[in-house]
Specification:
- By secondary structure, the protein is of the alpha/beta class.
- The protein folds into three domains: 110 residues, Trna Endonuclease, Chain: A, domain 1 (3-Layer(aba) Sandwich); 56 residues, lambda repressor-like DNA-binding domains (434 Repressor (Amino-terminal Domain)); 105 residues, Trna Endonuclease, Chain: A, domain 1 (3-Layer(aba) Sandwich), CATH 3.40.1350.
- Helices cover 37% and strands 24% of the residues.
- The chain contains eleven helices and 16 strands.
- The strands form two sheets. Strands 1, 2, 3, 4, 5, 6, 7, 8, 9 and 10 form a ten-stranded mixed β-sheet that branches. Strands 11-12-13-14-16-15 form a six-stranded mixed β-sheet, sandwiched between helices.
- A hairpin with a 2-residue loop joins β2 and β3.
- α5 crosses α6.
- The longest helix is centred in the last third of the chain and has 18 residues.
- It is elongated and about 80 Å long.
Length: 312
């Protein structure tokens, strides 16, 4: 079994070799690595034992994936039931969870898994249209095909209309009956709904951004305090560290991951502080004073100031 440090280093090196831009490794947060290649962005978290995944961190990871239009993925080695199998998708709090080998095959060869591990066994997604076409060609009723597959008419109806997953044994039997492939690959790298609606914060630290039209997510397990996006508008995300009485030395350290992640996620980055003695730029990250922010009426006012201070 690999130590997580080694696993993260291997993943980071592998992604770089495959042409991805990768972040530094942040192994104490809701994600370990952010990687980008063209329009594909990944948020990756590793676990030796995937039973260590918890709801709070998973929720934050999914929220950030929605903000960044990224795909969240957990890579693990085992669960309490034993070693994870290659080519199988496990899930933890609606985040696809796979082995490192499965991940590498998806990235290198676009070979996506078909099998989903769920309560009750292993399941697959099928193309219901193939079943319908087979019935039409052979003038079979729903019940007649259902009888052949040893399932109920209602279940066959759900199969045809892609309403439920199919256990692997039934899928194999249906393919033998039809003489054609009905199972579908599952592309978990494709960004999409991950079962997590954006839940915007409205606390004292974030309301100053909210009033400018941003939807703001406060974070607890990320190298920044908040991620934001202008509501109902296509725009760059904003990642921010917000006033918490931090020293200039601390802010300098925090500027490093802020710059790193803003480059990978194509986000604007900013410090929002109360201390008037803090300079207007820390490690290439613009600094905006909270009283300046209070004078703004729209997000474009903030973005204009960020641009000006970047260019100074």
């Amino acid at each position: 079994m690999q130590h997580r440090d080694k696993m993260n280093t291997e993943i980071n090196n592998f992604l770089k070799a495959e042409g991805f831009e990768t972040s530094d490794i942040y192994d104490h947060g809701s994600f370990d690595i952010v990687a980008r290649k063209n329009l594909l962005m990944l948020l990756v978290k590793t676990f030796n034992n995937i039973d260590g995944v918890n709801k709070t961190n998973s929720s934050e990871m999914k929220q950030l994936a929605n903000i960044f239009l990224a795909s969240p993925i957990i890579i693990g080695e085992k669960s309490r039931k034993g070693k994870l199998e290659d080519g199988v998708i496990y899930e933890r709090y609606d985040i696809p969870t796979i082995t490192l080998n499965t991940f590498k095959h998806m990235i290198s060869y676009e070979e996506y898994p078909e099998i989903i591990a769920d309560r009750g066994g292993y399941f697959v997604k099928i193309n219901g249209n193939v079943l319908k076409e087979y019935r039409d060609r052979n003038s079979l009723s729903l019940k007649e095909l259902a009888d052949k597959a040893h399932v109920s008419r209602a279940t066959m109806y759900k199969y045809e209309n892609d309403m439920v997953k199919v256990n692997t044994e039934t899928a194999i039997l249906l393919e033998e009956i039809i003489g054609d492939k009905i199972t579908e690959d599952i592309n978990i790298l494709k960004p999409g709904k991950n079962g997590e609606e954006l839940k915007y914060s409205d606390d004292e630290n974030t309301k100053i951004l909210s009033k400018l039209g941003y939807g703001v997510i406060s974070t607890n397990k990320s190298p920044f305090d908040a991620a934001a996006k202008i509501k109902n508008k296509e725009s760059k995300p904003l990642i921010a560290n917000i006033e918490k009485n931090r020293t200039p030395e601390t802010l300098k350290k925090m500027a490093v991951p802020l710059k790193d992640l803003s480059l990978i996620t194509s986000s604007e980055s900013v410090f929002i502080v109360d201390n008037e003695k803090i300079s207007e730029l820390i490690g290439e990250i613009p600094v905006v004073k909270s009283w300046e922010l209070e004078e703004f009426e729209k997000s474009k006012d903030l973005l204009k100031l960020i641009k000006e201070r970047k260019n100074n």
